[in-house]
Amino acid sequence: GHQESRDKAVVSTQSTGDHDARKAGAEVVKQVAHPLLSGLLYPALQALDEEYLSVDAQFGGVDQRKIFMFAEKYLPQLGYKKRVHFMNPMIPGLTGDKMSSSDPDSKIDLIDGPAAVKKKIKKAFCEPGNVTNNGLLSFAQYVIFPYLGKQEFEIKRKEEHGGNVSFASIEELTEAYRTEAVYPLDLKNSVAEYINQLLAPVVAEFQSKELKKLSSQAYPPVTTKGVKTPVVEAEIDISRIDIRVGRIVEIAPHPDAESLYVEKIDVGEAEPRTVISGLRHFVPLEQLQGALVAVVCNLKPANMRGIKSQGMLLCASDSEHKIVEVLRVAEGSKPGERITGEQYTNDPDKQLNPKKKIFEKVQVDLTTNEALEVTYKGEEMRTSAGPLTAPSLKQAVIR
Length: 399
What we know:
Elements: H1 2-16, H2 20-24, H3 37-52, E1 57-61, H4 65-74, E2 84-88, H5 114-123, H6 135-148, E3 153-155, E4 165-167, H7 170-178, H8 184-205, H9 209-218, E5 243-253, E6 261-266, E7 273-277, H10 285-288, E8 292-296, E9 302-304, E10 307-309, E11 312-313, E12 315-317, E13 324-326, H11 358-363, E14 366-368, E15 374-376, E16 379-380, E17 382-383, E18 386-387, E19 397-398
Parallel strand pairs: 1-2
Antiparallel strand pairs: 3-4, 5-6, 5-8, 6-7, 8-11, 9-10, 12-13, 12-19, 14-15, 15-16, 17-18
Helix pairs in contact: 1-3, 3-4, 5-8, 6-8
């Protein structure tokens, strides 16, 4: 109202004359020879926010300290109480640059769910051996180690990748990363796991209708009436593919094609899907009957010799396509359960656009390792019951 406008004018007039405004904004406002009026007003507006938002305290990084001192000097001159100010160290964001509220990928929010945390950390800048601009090491230092207390920071990994290892201090972890005894994926997996542990009770508390309403009021969605919002294409990775556990409940030779089977597969839906596979020359029918298999469920249905196929069985193949093996799903997996990597939990596309060849782009990074496990970019593909594997083919192509 009028009072707020008067306060803004008074603070701005009092402060700009002796350059307090320029000094206050030195670390948060771009410094130029001839400053813009907006840059001079910024410290005054932030200081007055304390009064007009009726806050008791303000929290920020140490780059805000001059603005905080500005507020402590000028608010009492207007007859308002001095507020409490808290600061924490400035740490690199997940993108390698400064952490910023305007860049969602540079930070972790208190109400980010497990999938959001994993996605952000998967994309985080984490150059091997780089310990100077490493936001994940900073998270470990300022968040995770204080959270753990006397408990050691543990990195869980397979024996062939060095086995489990733990660190009693941030110095030990930093040195191990600097010497590349700890790899980026090791650090990312552990940081994501600990952050999700820390945030779990906060996220659970925030599921209430009252808090969700409060959040939407505090951060209302931005609407641009009449302006068409561009559609942002999701990153192409294995999470775009809807791979599910299926059980073959019925199988028969295709009546019009000697190389094809017609299968009825339970993928957790009301009715089994009809899937056509070219396995007749590679796998005996009896071996497939009742088997647990991995099925791609979001390909566009295609007619195959007069019968519409509603999915595709995933198989391992040698480079010459002379040996083909149906992938094995871990016993105990349930039809309909998703098969993916731990870092790839975003919702899959409802249906893949065949023109964009998303599956083909993802497929090049699907292979089996020396332990016969199916991996995507080195990460194990699995269900809750265990890994997806090939019967015998190592370093195989997955098709």
